[in-house]
Amino acid sequence: MMRMVRSTLALLLAAAVLYGMQHTRPLYSDITSPIVASGGMNKRVEARAFALSLDSARVARVLNVETFGKSKTYTSSGVWVVVEGEAEAKFETLGLTSGEWLSRSGVRHVLTDRVPATIGMMPGDVYQPGLPRRVLLMFEVPEDAVAGGTVVVAPTKLLPLDDEIRIATNVSGKDIEPAITIRRTEERPPWTVLPQR
Amino acid sequence: MIAGLGGLAASAISFSMTLYEAAHPPKAPVVQAGQQIDTGRWFVTLRTARVGTVPPTGVPPSRPVQLMMVDLDVVNRSATPNNVLHRVVTLGSPAQKLPMPTVYLDRDKYLAGYFNPNMPERLTMAWEWPAGVPVPDKVTITVTGQIYKRRDNLYGASGWYDRDPVATVDLPVEKAP
Amino acid sequence: MDSSPAKVTSTRRGYWLSMMALVVALPAALAVQTWGSIKDWRSQHLRQPLSASLGQPIDYAGANWTVTRFTRLAGSAGSTVVLAEFEALAADPKALGSVPCEVRLSDGSGREWRPTLFADPVVRKQYPEAEQRSLCGGMAFAATEPGKPARMAASFSIPPAASGLTLSIALYSGLPSYLIVSEPRT
Questions:
Q1: What is the pLDDT of residues C73-130, one digit of tens each?
Q2: What is the CATH number of the domain that holds C73?
Q3: Does domain A33-194 fall into CATH 2.60.40.1240?
Q4: Which are the contacts of C104, defined by CB distance < 8 A and separation ≥ 6?
Q5: First to last CA, chain C
Q6: Which residue of chain A is at minimal alpha-carbon distance from B110?
Q7: Same domain, C79 and C146
Q8: What is the interface pTM, i.e. ipTM, of the complex?
């Protein structure tokens, strides 16, 4: 009889310990979270494998994309955020396939997949060590997610403990242009953001 | 010994629960078209259903097929972008399994990609209707719920998990060319 | 219950034997499980270079390799293009047809470039024949007849200041050995 009671108690204790451990240990996403390097606009932010600087972030209600004479208009239930900057691989050729707009409240928005990749956006490009290259990032976000947003760039979204750069933008969310045009060009970089300012 | 018995009991319970659920499928409430359904991760509002041969892009496929097209509004309420709508909105009939639907964004009249959080979108889901199966006068759409687990039982990872259907919607099928 | 001394001893012996077996079996299971990964890691990371110079044939991975060109060109937008051409005479090219191959360019400071997917326009202009060649690996060998060398090329986009360049060619069937050729001094 005593033995039964004792083993039941041991079992309950073990269950309690396991439950406690499950709820006090860090989340899986925290253990495997990327290694972050942060910074602000117009600064070169260095991660282990790559560096990124952003020099322009503009907000518009409508996005026009001009590809060799053909123009297409992209509307949104929110607004468009168009970000430009420069990225460079440090030691090895790499791609930067993941870009996100992190709102102040922690909600993530991915790079738009509505605009055709021919415009030469960041994920399609290859970054060579020692050859910095202009980057273009376009996000579609609700209007209330603009102010205080952060751009998050990583080589890939899939590898745990990979590099990630976070750059806090300086957009207020009040200065919203009616429309921005991205024109594809034959030069480098292969796009121009209009109207110029 | 106790652990063995416990394990046996656990698998017996889980097996009989599965059996019970299979025998008594949960009854999801019938919701009217145009009414917003809260699935946990999404707000889904089903609008209309129609059958036709031209997808919303306006370009008919090279191999002529019948498409069952359902118009709906969605809002992603989670904190991350997602595009796995085909697990949330499923076509009840016909009996055989349909291939994955194609999702079109109404705004672009083109394939939809990710749905960003808190951005309402109107879209069209198009299922290829099997040849030889007569098109019914109405289809039943099942909307499945999803719940957020802060830590799952295996890794302690956060994620969304499919749950029972939260609603079914009957839509009359318009026959468009 | 039978609790004669003989029975107790044999139960106890069984218990300790099992514990000893566990001590041996557990690490053994771990070792067997990790052995494959260790082997993969070794072949990927512990490599032995086989050094050759430009134009000098060398045997590697079942073929006779020669790097025939290793040159710098002025690329677009201030970059430098490095064009490398090489060929391999294999006894049985079909056998190499499905072996992945890795070509890299590295410099004295440990930076490493992968070949560019599309060659810079300057390559097309100055060496149109190089553009016809395929990148190292499967395709190049599969399309070659026995007795003829498989001709391959790779071009890289690098900053003009990079110095001490080394071309490396690794055929997965030839690992941990790989070929290296240094940029010729001019």
A1: 888 878 899 999 888 887 777 777 788 888 999 998 889 999 988 777 888 888 887 7
A2: 2.60.40.1240
A3: yes
A4: C112, C113, C114, C167, C168, C170
A5: 93
A6: A114
A7: yes
A8: 0.83
Q: What is the DSSP annotation of C72-96?
A: EEE-GGG-EEEEEEEEEEESSGGGG
Question: What's the average model confidence in pLDDT over A160-167?
Answer: 89
**How distant is the Cα of A152 from the closest Cα of chain C, in angstroms?**
25
Q: Which residues of A touch C (CB under 8 A)?
A: 90-93, 126, 128-131, 188
Domain assignment of residue C69, given as a range: 48-182
Inter-chain touch C157–A92, beta carbons under 8 Å:
no
B28-175: CATH number = 2.60.40
Q: Do C104 and C12 share a structural domain?
A: no
Q: Which two tokens stand for residue C88?
A: 């391999």
Burial class of residue C138 (count of CB atoms within 10 Å of its CB; 0-12, 13-18, 19+): middle
Q: What is the pLDDT of residue A118?
A: 55
CB-based touch C/B (3+ pairs, under 8 A): no
User: How many CB pairs below 8 A link A and B?
Assistant: 60
Chain A's closest residue to C77, CA to CA, is: A188
Q: Do A93 and C76 touch (CB under 8 A)?
A: no
Written as one letter, the residue type at A94 is L
Q: How many domains does chain C have?
A: 2
Mean pLDDT, 10 residues at a time, over chain B (177 residues)?
74 80 74 90 94 90 89 94 91 77 93 93 93 87 90 81 89 81
Beta-carbon pairs below 8 A across chains A and C:
36
